[in-house]
Amino acid sequence: MRRVLSLIIFLVITVGGGLAIGLATLPGEWYAQLEKPFFNPPSWIFSPVWTVLYVLIAFAGWRTFEQARSSAGMKLWFAQLVLNFLWSPSFFGAQRMDLALFVIILLLITILFFIRERWGKDRIVAYCFMPYAAWVAFATLLNASLLILN
């Protein structure tokens, strides 16, 4: 029962936190008026992609927590979550594409370090972060392109 409660807490913090930050920093008119690169995905794709990613992130964090609460992996997991939650307020809230680009580059590096750290200890957790790494790499390119175009 304790493990299930722990998983629920990770899901609430990760998915709930992502949803709350997303609702608090909706793209709005400012973003709508930006010149977009040709590979900019349609707006409707972000919500389902992030929902799936947040579930994977929560699962990976929970599993790492259950195995090694004070590990480097857990510290990296928390660091990536903080950086993840800082990106939307930087980009949409402050409308600082340059600051957001800095945050997302740090986020991508942290994700890659987390994958590397967990690879030899729990490959399932490492695999859970691979779609996240791919999406954040794409989002980094998108952020940089928006900064250049605008």
Can you give keywords for this protein?
150 residues, mainly alpha, Ferritin, 81% helix, globular
The CATH C-level name is Mainly Alpha
Instruction: Kindly report how far apart the N and C termini lie.
Output: 51 Å
Described by strand count, sense and barrel closure, the largest sheet is:
none
Mind telling me the CATH superfamily name?
TspO/MBR protein
- Judged by helices, strands and strand pairing, the structural class is mainly alpha
DSSP helix count? 6
The count of strands amounts to 0
Q: What is the overall silhouette?
A: globular
CATH architecture designation = Up-down Bundle
What is the total number of structural domains? 1
Give the topology string: H per helix, E per strand.
HHHHHH
Q: Spans of 5+ residues with little confidence (pLDDT < 50)?
A: none
Rounded to the nearest angstrom, the radius of gyration is 16 Å
- Beta percentage is under 5%
Query: Which fold name fills CATH's third level, the topology?
Result: Ferritin
Helix-residue proportion: over 70%
Mean pLDDT: 97
